[in-house]
Amino acid sequence: MASTAFKTFSLANNVVEVSPQDDIYKFDVDADKRINREQPWTKDPHYFKTCKISATALIKMVIHARSGVPYEIMGLMQGKVMGTSLVIIDSFALPVQGTETRVNAANEAYEYMVQYIEGSKLVNRLENAVGWYHSHPGYGCWLSGIDVTTQFTNQKFQDPFVAVVIDPNRTISAGKVDIGAFRTYPENYTPPDAAASEYQSIPLSKIEDFGVHANQYYPLEVQIFKSSLDNELLGLLWNKYWINTLSQSALISNRAYAVSQLNDLQQKLAKAQSSVSSTRAPIPLPKDDIKSKMLKEEKKKEEANQLAKSVKDGAKIATEAQHGLIAQVLKDILFSSRPGAPTSSSVSVEEVVDTAMSIG
Amino acid sequence: MTSMDTDELPVVLPSTTTTSGLTIALHPLPILNISEHFTRLKLQKRQSLPFVLGALLGTQTGREVEIVNTFELAVQDDQVTVDQEFFDARRDQYKQVFPSLEFIGWYTVAAYPTAKHIAFHEQFATLIPTPLLLLLKPSSSFAASADLVVQTLPFKAYEPTIEIRDRKARSVFIEAGYTVETGEAERIAVDWTARGGSGGTSLESHLSSQRAAVKMLHDRILLLVKYVTEILAGEAKKDHATLRSLSALIASLPASEHKGFREEFEKEYEDVQLTAFLSSLTKSTNILNDLVDKHIVFTAQREERGPGAGRRRGPRGMMDFH
């Protein structure tokens, strides 16, 4: 019975079970030296395509990010390069609180970093620092202007290096980890084509910072890996924390964040109100039309449609709230209704699920 | 570890005579940390049972202990003494980043505590009065069995204490039970990594995790029901403590008939539905705007062609505005 519950877990088709299973954890000193000598990433700005993060490193970073809310926290990650992916085996926190105005927070933590990495060698943690992570509590995973500058410098002097961003608030309200891994392009390099990235809802106060620098870096695909022992332990852990799944309520723990999201939406709508009169209908183009200039103009018109973006933001807020509500209603039915008596509340799970489906 | 061990007394007191009074809450992060440490050393040293040693961080208030994080420890070349310098440096570093966590114990990998562990315990006891010991039991067969009872985590916690025997005092360990607690972010991260870390329609994954949790609740309840029916049929032994807690549980249902709670609940429900309303309102406004834009394009064209020709060839299939 419990194994079925565990199988229900492994829904996703992206379970990267490393094969041979735990080999990724082995640190091969010679291979590492070799690849650091060759440095294939200096020849191709798009060299790294994926970022593999170990389960322990990820959980540590999420917990650290959450513990620091509302401040931005940062830390370092240790790992190695394997082919075109940067593998992150462990992470550790730095005693610095980031604010948007601090460019070189890393300098203050320098001594801490050096000491930690030296000490790591004593306990058989031989990997080098291959990246840094920091949190954006509530405003999404992307690199701000300061972050881009910091990452430029990192990639110049400490390559291979990757920047990881985590949003602990969104993690809780969405019920899944909000994380992104990025690498900047070298200066004076224009990417061949600005690929349309997945839309993220960004608060109004940050949206300029996001837009200006969006083309100076690209995202890596994030994959999680775990060892065979981790797998078994996670399966066993489910037996213990299923209770927390039911008892915790996203609506309550994330109330401040939800309110700030609504505020932000209100501001965006106010802005949309002024710009909506200038929207134009998009001209339908024949599919095989290679006139890329026309396509780009159409895309620009779409992006300028503030109202459409607000619709997406509104839908996201509503969907997440509905999810939280589904959990609450479930608990209400399970624990508050008496058998046989008609449910006194007018609430039923079907209604809420229907609403959730109709929004998304 | 030689024949001289035969006259050594066992290091763990049998749990029937003494029980630990501690309530230990173990988080998933230390569990995964220890597993990673073990896997890593196994691979690097190519041994199936390398020597693993580390420190536990957490909080202890009275008899309640919470184990939240861990870090690795080094031993000096004699394999028995802890590297004190490294320990102090690492502990201070963790203090800087997580000021609320204290050193509360240590962990290692073994089937059960032995005299060697007592030696380590003595070293840690100089730093704090009662360092806990957490053991990971190495075993190649965690074979998934469908039996709910058998699936327990291969970790055991021990509390050190002094036993007086033959007018000599010696340190021994008592096994202590533990529960698994998580913070919300931790739970989501653990959940997500267990599923392999990809997305999927959020509604689908949310519903399935809720369903899995409810199913577990259902299974546990069925087990309890089975137990009670067996007692009634006279097959099972009555355990009064369990029965008392069962009746307390049933008496506390329904959990919320209180009027104040109902009001809060309904208000929250209304708030959430308001956001849904807001979202559909914005969506309809946007669709309307689009429609108006397209209509403008259409009518502009019609007017361009001149009043006469256009009106006769009135466009078909255009929506009427009422």
TrEMBL record, chain A:
Keywords: Hydrolase, Metal-binding, Metalloprotease, Protease, Signalosome, Zinc. It comes from the Eukaryota. CDD domains: MPN_RPN11_CSN5 (cd08069). SMART domains: JAB_MPN (SM00232). Component of the COP9 signalosome (CSN) complex. PANTHER family: EUKARYOTIC TRANSLATION INITIATION FACTOR 3 -RELATED (PTHR10410). This is COP9 signalosome complex subunit 5.
From TrEMBL, chain B:
Residues 24-164 form the MPN domain. It comes from the Eukaryota. It is found in: Cytoplasm; Nucleus. CDD domains: MPN_CSN6. The keyword Cytoplasm applies. InterPro entries: EIF3F/CSN6-like_C (IPR024969), JAMM/MPN+_dom (IPR000555), MPN (IPR037518), MPN_CSN6 (IPR033859). The keyword Cytoplasm applies. Keywords: Cytoplasm, Nucleus, Signalosome. SMART domains: JAB_MPN. This is COP9 signalosome complex subunit 6. It comes from Somion occarium.
